[in-house]
Amino acid sequence: MYQNKIVKPVRKTRDDGKETQAAIIETAGKLIASQGYDKTTSKQICQELGINLAAVNYHFDSREKLYLEVLRQVYTYLLSVTELNELEEKNLTAEQKIEKLLNLLEESVKQESNWKIRVWLREILSPSDFVKKIVTEEVLPKLNLMTKIFSEYTGLPANDSKTFALMIGTFAPFFWMLLFQREEVSAIRAAIPINYEKEKILEGIKNFVMTSLKQFKL
Fold this sequence. Notes:
about 0% strand; single chain
């Protein structure tokens, strides 16, 4: 006599752990962007999400390690190593690579309300003790790739101080645009008698940068 074998359906399980981690990072990032790291507690993050107060320590070991992960997300968002590698390896002229780099910077300015941009600005204006680790892990690889792009365009050696100066000069106008848009300087912005049209200003910045860089081509 045969017995029917009961086969239990296989349930697809969601990776709830990773989803929770991502939610914690997103919530922590928004709070830190708004009020700073020092004022953002693990308790507040968990209350915002409606999860157990021990969740931050469970998923990240500590609030400090959570903030390191927030900063990694920030620097990956701003300009990923993958994007720069693709830019370096693509069959583009050196000038086209510079132009695409400027377009990436322009997009960052347009997304100034994004919490990642705001956290980055906080770190630039008031660096935390975590920056050194992030610089070593995230910034230096990008800096090396960007140096190659500027060296290729200008013909200057990658380790030439002029190459580094040109990189700073390229990024500076976009950085100031981000600062200029911050709510904290709204009174200053309102007092300046100019027609503030962001799109036209960004286009002018890009033209200025490209014109300036061409003067240094060997």
